[in-house]
Amino acid sequence: QYYTTSNANVHRAAHYLSDKATLSFEQARVTVKQFINARSDNEIIWTRGTTEAINLVASSWGESNLQPGDVIILSELEHHANIVPWQLVAEKTGAIIKAVRLNDDFSLDMAHYRQLLSQSPKLVAISHVSNAIGSINPIDTIISLAKTAGAVTLVDGAQAVSHFALDMQALDCDFYVFSGHKLFGPTGIGVLYGKAALLNAMPPWQG
């Protein structure tokens, strides 16, 4: 429909078609804001997918805030999209990655998680649902404990977004990421939700 009726640059012109395209572009942001109950549509950032959203946070927030010896907590359940960007930023900044172990039933070892939190991590980046085995992580508890430890939280919601009602204000994570094709939409589009204060403090990633 866009290519047929309103194909024009968004935010780059003042003519009718551009206004129409821009309105639709921004209304889609409002739709996502309502879908995940974010506070503001300014907290919805378009990306090419979950992987790019994580790379954006790793590069922009990570390179600005991580220092040698800082701890990044992941888990042994993570998709490569939530491992490799942190490995790259750790190489650049000197940060250290530590992974939460799994129990015999493939759930996260929460005792080990609490032990890692005692090391005052800067970031906890955990999947909401495992892409490989479908384990549903206790994300509310994970976020709450991370906040008590002073860590920023990122949740990979790619596998959860089509199965659970999401409420960013109740969840209170700092970042939440997902892809459009997981919601039966087109490939090549995704969402980075981020709290406005964090997004506003992050330097541009691409120019």
Fold topology:
Elements: H1 2-5, H2 16-36, E1 44-47, H3 50-65, E2 71-75, H4 84-93, E3 96-100, H5 110-117, E4 123-127, H6 139-148, E5 152-156, H7 168-171, E6 175-179, E7 190-194, H8 196-201
Parallel strand pairs: 2-3, 2-4, 4-5, 5-6
Antiparallel strand pairs: 1-7, 6-7
Helix pairs in contact: 3-4
Comma- or semicolon-separated keywords:
seven-stranded mixed beta sheet, 207 residues, 8 helices
What does this structure look like?
The longest helix is centred in the N-terminal third of the chain and has 21 residues. The chain has 8 helices and 7 strands. By secondary structure, the protein is α/β, with parallel strands linked by helices. The chain starts with a helix and ends in a 6-residue tail after the last helix.
